[in-house]
Each structure stands twice: as structure tokens, then as C-alpha cells.
Amino acid sequence: MRRVTIFVMVIVILIAINFQIYQKEQLLTEGSTILLELAPVDPRSLMQGDYMILRYKIAALAEATGTEKDGFLVMGLDENQVAHFLRIYDNEDLQPVEFLLRFRKRGRGINLGAESFFFQEGHARFYDNAHYGELKVAANGDSVLIGLRDKNFKLLQTDE
Fold first, then answer.
1. In this structure, are residues 150 and 129 in contact, taking their beta carbons and an 8 Å threshold?
2. Distance between CA atoms of 108 and 158, rounded to whole angstroms?
3. 49 DSSP β-pair partners
4. Torsion of CA 74, 60, 147, 33, to 10 degrees
5. What residues contact residue 139 under an 8 Å CB cut-off, 6+ apart?
6. Distance of alpha carbon 72 from alpha carbon 90, whole angstroms
7. Mean pLDDT of the chain
8. Residue 126: left if φ>0, alpha if ψ -120 to 50, beta else—which one?
9. How is the chain split into domains, by residue range?
10. Which of 5, 53, 57, 135 could form a disulfide with 37 if both were Cys (CB 3.0 to 4.6 A apart)?
11. Confidence at residue 46, expressed as pLDDT on a 0 to 100 scale
């Protein structure tokens, strides 16, 4: 009986993990691409290798509203697909040019869920000019970071 219970638990865990992978894959293929302006800090972690902690300028604007709970930012886009904070979502109808971006209130700050960008050790120089985070955003406000861009909107990547 114990083996059956362990087997069932393993199957449930695998199903849950695969469902999350499926959801991220759907977001990558069906999500809208947006750019968020950065205010980056470049640390190094002995356990994780090189990475960049991303701080988005819109997070500071949203923090200034004094929101005390998790929710959604209402965003607009300019002609370069750069997102701009409009307001905190309050269950009102959105205009056709507006979209949602999920946030979580953590301590005194707002977390958009894409605050770390990992890269191969020794490749920091390729990302020094990062000015925008490129995200895919689903209609429900979920997002995933897919890359970094420079001030001219060019995708930053290694030469390899």
C-alpha cells in the first residue's frame, strides 16, 4: 500500500510540473511581447553564477500608489512596445489599448515575477547595455522574461 501511495504522489507531482511547463510554453507562443524599462544592478552569486537583478522603473511608480496587496498593473504601450504604468487595476473595464501585468507586493516593494536574468559566467559584458527587459504577457496578466534589449531596442545576446 505504501508503494502505491508513493507511486500516486510521484504521478501527481509529475502532472503538476508538466502542466506548469505547458502553461509557460503557451505564454511564450501566445503572449504579447512588451518591453519594460530597467534600472539594473549586476551582482554575482557563488552558487548560481553570473546574473543580473532587474529593477523595473514602473515598479517604483506602482509602489508610489501605496498599494498594500497583490494585484494587477494597468499598462499601455507606446509605438516601440515599451509598456507604461497607467494605474492599479480595480476591476474596471479596460480600454482596447490597455493590458494587465500581474504584480506581488513583497515587503515595501512590488515584484513583477521576472527580477533575475541569468547568463553564462563571463558573459556579463554582453548585457552591460541592458535598457529594457523583454517579456511575454498573457491576457490574464502572467508574464515571463525572455530577453534583454539595449536603448535602441536591439536584442542583447552573446556572439556564440
1. yes
2. 35
3. 45
4. 10
5. 99, 100
6. 8
7. 84
8. alpha
9. 1-30, 32-149
10. 57
11. 47
- 51 backbone dihedrals φ, ψ, rounded to 5°: -160, 165
Q: What's the predicted TM-score (pTM) here? A: 0.77
Adjacent-strand bridge partners of 32: 137
Backbone region of residue 144 per phi and psi (left: phi > 0; alpha: psi in -120 to 50; beta: other values)? beta
Residue among 76, 103, 75, 73 at smallest CA distance from 90:
73
For the chain, percent of residues with pLDDT exceeding 70: 92
43: left (phi over 0), alpha (psi -120 to 50) or beta: beta
* Three-state secondary structure of the chain: CHHHHHHHHHHHHHHHHHHHHHHHHHHHHHCEEEEEEECCECCEECCCEEEEECCEHHHHHHHCCCCCCCEEEEEEECCCCEEEEEEECCCCCCCCCEEEEEEEEECCEEECCCCEEECCCCCHHHHCCCCEEEEEECCCCCEEEEEEECCCCCECCCCC
Q: Supply 103's cell numbers.
A: 504584480
What are 51-83's pLDDT values in tens digits?
Answer: 778 888 888 888 877 777 888 999 999 999 999
